[in-house]
Specification:
disordered N terminus
C-alpha cells in the first residue's frame, strides 16, 4: 500500500454524465419521470462537490453535453468538456483523459461515476492513496459486478471498460481491485429506488438530500 505521501501528486478525475433526459432511466420507475432527471443532476453535483473537496484531487473534468448540468457543475469548480465522440461511456472517458493529458502529460488519472451521492472525500482520498501503488486500479460497485472508479498512473492509459459486468473486464485487463473495508460511499452508485434508499442511509450530499426530503422513493417493482 502507498504511504501517506502520494508520489503521483494531485489527481485529475474524469466524470462522465449522460444528458439528463436519458440519465437514470431505471430510477424513473420509482421516482417518477419528473423527478428522475433532477435526481441525476443532484447525484452528479454531490459527486463532483465531494471530489473537489478531496485533498488528493487537483481538478475534475466532467464530460457532458447537457445544457443544464454543464453550467451547474462548472459553477462548483469543475471543468466541463463536450462529449464530442458521443459514442458511449468509455469513449467519453477516453475523451476526458486525452483532454487532461494534453494539458498535463504527467497527470495521474481516475474515472469516477457521476451517481455517487453519498461519496465521502476521505474515502476517495484513501482510494487515491491505494491507487498510487498500482499502474491501474479500480473499485467495484456494491454488487461486485460493475465499476465505480478506475485509475491510471502517469505513463499508463486508463483503458476503461465500464457498463454491465465491468469488474470482470477490468480484472482481465490487469487492473488491480481495491477491496479495502470502509469504502461504502464510493461503491454505492444509484440506479434504482432501492439503491437510493441505501445511499440515503449512508448520508447523501446536500443536493440529493434537498430533493429527496419531500419525495422519498417508493419500492422498486
Amino acid at each position: 500500500m502507498a504511504t501517506n505521501t502520494d508520489p503521483t501528486g494531485p489527481w485529475s478525475l474524469v466524470v462522465p454524465l449522460k444528458p439528463l433526459a436519458r440519465a437514470k432511466s431505471r430510477l424513473g420507475r420509482t421516482a417518477g419521470e419528473e423527478l428522475r432527471p433532477r435526481l441525476a443532476l443532484a447525484f452528479a453535483l454531490d459527486t463532483v462537490a465531494a471530489a473537489l473537496s478531496c485533498a488528493g484531487v487537483r481538478d475534475v473534468v466532467v464530460v457532458t453535453d447537457d445544457p443544464v448540468a454543464g453550467p451547474a457543475l462548472s459553477a462548483l469548480g469543475a471543468r466541463t468538456l463536450a462529449d464530442s465522440p458521443a459514442a458511449g461511456l468509455d469513449a467519453a472517458l477516453e475523451h476526458g483523459a486525452r483532454s487532461v493529458r494534453s494539458r498535463r502529460p504527467g497527470a495521474a488519472l481516475a474515472a469516477l461515476n457521476a451517481d455517487l451521492p453519498a461519496l465521502r472525500p476521505e474515502e476517495l482520498a484513501r482510494v487515491l492513496e491505494f491507487s498510487s501503488s498500482f499502474s491501474r486500479a479500480f473499485v467495484s460497485d456494491a454488487q461486485g459486478i460493475g465499476t465505480t472508479f478506475l485509475s491510471a498512473l502517469p505513463g499508463f492509459e486508463l483503458r476503461p471498460s465500464f457498463g454491465g459486468p465491468s469488474r470482470a473486464r477490468h480484472l482481465r485487463s490487469g487492473a488491480v481491485e481495491i477491496s479495502a473495508p470502509g469504502l461504502d460511499s464510493i461503491r454505492r452508485d444509484v440506479d434504482t429506488g432501492d439503491d437510493l434508499r441505501v445511499a440515503l442511509g449512508l448520508g447523501v450530499g446536500r443536493y440529493t438530500a434537498g430533493l429527496t426530503a419531500a419525495a422519498a422513493p417508493g419500492p422498486d417493482r
